[in-house]
Amino acid sequence: MPLLDRLHIEVTNVCNFKCEFCPDAIMARRRGHMDFELLDNLLEAIATQDLARIVTFHLMGEPFIYPHIFEGIQSAVRRSIRLHLTTNGSTFHLFPEHIEALVRSGVPKVTISLQTPDPKTFQLRGAPPRLQSEAYFQGIIEYVQANLKAIDSPTRIHVKFLDTTPHPFLVPHKPMQVVDGKAHMQEELTTWAHRFLDGIADSTIHWSHIARSIERHRSGQWQLIPLHPKLVLETFPLDSWGNIESAAVLPASFGYCNGASQQAGVLYDGTVVPCCKDFEGQIPLGKVTEQPLKTILEGSAACALRQSFDRFRVDHPVCQRCMGADTRTKSWLRQLGSVAYFKAYSPLMRAVYPGWGEV
């Protein structure tokens, strides 16, 4: 059994977007790219020691800005690592050659953070001036359609939409309006389903099934709407990255998180962190430039964090802020909800639906 369910490898923390819903703008860490030799050695250790079931090339940053991104993809695919990529999709227009290279790469899954589905909300992305909204959207459409038409491509694409419907459990770090409510989300999902599938002749596309899936959409929840065996629309509610100002949050004192037990991250400089939300590296577990990853994950810092959560204690100030909330009621709901989710709901779903949580 793999040591981790998911390992996030930050190949770069440089991004060409400055999204208002992302902590990139407030991140204090130095910007840089992971040395390719370090990445290749990490992938070799993961493959030979069975360290993670799924590997992502993302924690902060835009992976397709990484100078060695396609070498990294091939390094993972060659070792039969289940690699998931998350991208803002900007390079499909800026560097059109990325489309064919990615279609041919054999990567199992690509998640495109479309998030803002129209020209007005696209302004929240802080995109470079030479990338206007329609060009951005068209580049994503061209990649999706190229992948659907490529019979030998195994890649499953998820296109993610940001749901900003108010939610009693979530604490966005700032108020924001992108897609709010069931009717608005259904409208956007329908529009984008037609944009992606326009001109695609495929017997696996059933519009009646798609329409029913969209009609069943519930606002304020993570949800999947399959359009095709290789294409899924995904809605995701807006939350913080643990980056709420400390004065505005009531810190959590109890709860549970799977950080350092089922997930971990490696920042571009080799620092190992317990989860994908530790974007500043404030809970360093060790450095893979100094110790093997397996040694770090089994070391005292990681064990102490796991033991704390196993006792339903939230001891680290970063975790307390991440799991806290802006009202006392919401704070209790989030803390109780974290235990219910990780200790009851998630294991039950995995037992009933093998592969749940990795789609």
Q: In words, what does this structure look like?
A:
With 359 residues, this protein is an alpha/beta fold. The protein has 12 helices and 10 strands. It has helices at 36-49, 69-78, 91-94, 97-105, 119-122, 133-149, 182-197, 207-215, 293-297, 300-310, 317-323, 328-352; strands at 4-9, 52-56, 83-87, 109-115, 156-163, 223-228, 231-237, 263-266, 271-273, 286-287. Strands 6-7-5-4-3-2-1-8-9-10 form a 10-stranded mixed beta sheet.
Summarize the structure.
This protein has 359 residues and is α/β, with parallel strands linked by helices.
Secondary structure elements and pairings:
Elements: E1 4-9, H1 36-49, E2 52-56, H2 69-78, E3 83-87, H3 91-94, H4 97-105, E4 109-115, H5 119-122, H6 133-149, E5 156-163, H7 182-197, H8 207-215, E6 223-228, E7 231-237, E8 263-266, E9 271-273, E10 286-287, H9 293-297, H10 300-310, H11 317-323, H12 328-352
Parallel strand pairs: 1-2, 1-8, 2-3, 3-4, 4-5, 5-7
Antiparallel strand pairs: 6-7, 8-9, 9-10
Spatial strand sequence of the major β-sheet = 6-7-5-4-3-2-1-8-9-10
Extract low-pLDDT stretches.
none
SS strand fraction:
5-15%
Order of helices and strands: EHEHEHHEHHEHHEEEEEHHHH
- Radius of gyration computed on alpha carbons: 20 Å
What share of the residues lie within helices? 25-40%
Structural class: alpha/beta
Mean pLDDT score? 93
**Cα separation of the termini:** 19 Å
From the spread of the alpha carbons, the general shape counts as globular
